[in-house]
Amino acid sequence: MVDRSTGKAAIFLSVGLALAASLLLAPEYPFAKDYYGYGLRVTARIAFVFFMLAYLARPMVSVLGQGQWLVLHRCYLGLAAAIAHTVHFAYIVLYFQETGEEIELITIIFGGLAFVLFWFMSLTSNRLSQRVLGAWWGHLHTFGMHWIWIIFFQSWLGTAFVIPWYWVFVALSVFGLGLRIAAFVKKAPVCARGGMRT
After folding, report:
1. pTM for the full model?
2. Where does residue 100 fall: left (phi above 0), alpha (psi -120 to 50 degrees), or beta otherwise?
């Protein structure tokens, strides 16, 4: 029998250590804005890793027959991603306060919604919220998960043209979406896929 409490502790310890190590071991920068820029980049990557583990959990089991541990701990992986993304949000605030730059309205709207969804999904990741929200709980989490994927993807794609190794994140994003599509097609009724039910 899998001990969920052990897995929960391991996930939160992992995200805590990842955040601490990446930020405490940061290179020395002459200006605060450069350190804040480093911090927001690193926390985005950490949040993405935990988010993708949650994003891939069910389709991995459905399509590949692997990933049962991820499904069992998907909620905690999502919460770990939200923690890292909250630290990321703090670095964004610090960066723009330091530089005095203005954030484009479109970034505030689309990127801001991703943060709101991340936090709301975290607050409703419990059985009570599932009972209270009913079917809307599933709609909210499905929409939120894909919206966050879109924000990550467009961010990685834009950066990859400047920093080539970011294509790794682009590839992981595409792989994740492809696996979810494959899981959806596999689960869909035969007639819904254009064939005949037998």
Report:
1. 0.88
2. left
In order of start, what are the domains of the chain with their CATH numbers?
4-193 (1.20.120)
Matching residue, tokens 């998907």: 74
* Residue 107, C-beta contacts closer than 8 angstroms, at least 6 positions apart: none
Closest CA to 121 of 89, 80, 175, 174: 80
| Token output for 30 | 């002459």
For 61-83, the DSSP string reads IIIIS--HHHHHTHHHHHHHHHH
pLDDT tens track for 144-194: 999 999 999 999 999 999 999 999 999 999 999 999 999 988 876 543 333
Largest CA distance in the chain: 69
> What residue type is 17 in one-letter code?
L
CB neighbour class for 48 (10 Å; exposed up to 12, middle 13-18, buried from 19): buried
The Cα–Cα gap between 177 and 192 comes to 20
Give the pLDDT confidence of 10-42 residue by residue, as tens digits. Answer: 888 999 999 999 888 888 898 999 999 999 999
Give dist(CA 39, CA 52) in Å, integer. Answer: 20
Pairwise CA distance, residues 116 & 121, whole Å: 8
